[in-house]
Design a protein that fits this description.
Radius of gyration: 22 Å
Strand order of the largest sheet: 1-2
Distance between the termini: 13 Å
Number of helices: 6
Structural class: mainly alpha
Oligomer: single chain
Low-confidence stretches: 146-172
Largest sheet: 2 strands, antiparallel
Number of strands: 2
Strand content: under 5%
């Protein structure tokens, strides 16, 4: 049975956008009119996207984990709370950026750049945990194990699945 990865593609896109945002923020000529507002808007849009992503995971994926791997679900929910606090702290910087005096913009840009990269670092660790701990957990639970005379009937009972025409339908 092919294993579905609920995280891989979405997380690859998030990484690409986070890295692009860091590079563009670091390279932006903040002294040009409108650049501070544009960069601030992009940072705020990214944290909003990450919040929405966490909400979707909490709603759709963590319910599955709660049933099959409760410790993994607890750990990820705690991570989401920690990341939300980091997003709140980060969001204060881009909100203030456009109103900064021109002679302080370069330092403010650098402070935002450092804070963004700190959040990215924490977020990358979170993605790694989701992909290497949380995603395999339901599959470990659902992996068919046939032992002696128990055979397919024991596998079906343990997995909560049914077999039709030789195909396992896993209900996780």
């Amino acid at each position: 049975m092919p294993q579905i990865d609920l995280y891989r593609n979405v997380h690859m896109g998030q990484r690409a956008r986070l890295f692009a945002l860091a590079v563009e923020l670091g390279a932006a000529d903040i002294s040009r009119p409108g650049t501070a507002a544009d960069q601030a808007e992009r940072c705020l849009a990214m944290t909003q996207e990450l919040r929405e992503h966490a909400d979707h995971e909490d709603t759709f994926i963590h319910q599955l984990l709660r049933e099959r791997a409760p410790r993994a679900a607890d750990a990820l929910e705690a991570e989401h709370v920690r990341l939300e606090a980091a997003f709140v702290a980060l969001d204060d910087l881009p909100r203030a950026l456009p109103a900064r005096p021109v002679d302080t913009l370069a330092d403010a840009q650098h402070a935002l750049y450092l804070a963004l990269n700190e959040v990215i670092s924490a977020y990358l660790a979170h993605l790694h945990a989701e992909e290497t701990v949380a995603m395999p957990a339901p599959w470990e639970y659902a992996r068919p194990r046939r032992t002696g005379s128990v055979g397919a009937a024991g596998t079906r009972a343990r997995l909560g699945c049914r077999v039709r025409h030789g195909v396992h339908f896993v209900q996780i």
